[in-house]
Design a protein that fits this description.
Elements (H helix, E strand, L loop, with lengths): L5 E3 L3 H14 L3 E4 L10 H14 L5 E6 L4 H9 L4 E3 L5 H11 L2 E3 L5 E3 H6 L4 H11 L4
Parallel strand pairs: 1-2, 1-6, 2-3, 3-4, 4-5
Helix pairs in contact: 1-2, 1-6, 3-4
Length: 141
Amino acid sequence: MPLPTAIVIHGLGHATAALAAAGELDVPVTLISAPGAAGYVGPAWFRAVIEQARAAHRDADITAVLDCGDMPGYALAALRDGAPIIRFSGDTAAKIADIAAQYGALVIAERPEALDLAVVERSRRDLGRACREWLETHENG
């Protein structure tokens, strides 16, 4: 399943900047957590960020992906919390994918190419502008 163009978010400000840019351009966007984020921010935090961003940008076409690294416990917690798509790269990927299917969820093994908004922020670039440029120059879907 090809995902829309991806942007790595590290909080609500990043998510809303990405969705505002996607809305301006009228394109879908994948919001993906940082690598292994399920283990240190947790699925409930990620879900809350996505829900708040969606509430602020109701017309946005969002795909959300929580990165669970290679830890099956994090993947299972994310699935129990209702994550529709997780990234998981552990040895038990086939078992996790089977369990995900039972939840109606999807597992991807590889992280998509993505703009990391933490890197943008550290470079003191404008988040909105960086998101617009990324979304304009990278093929969607």
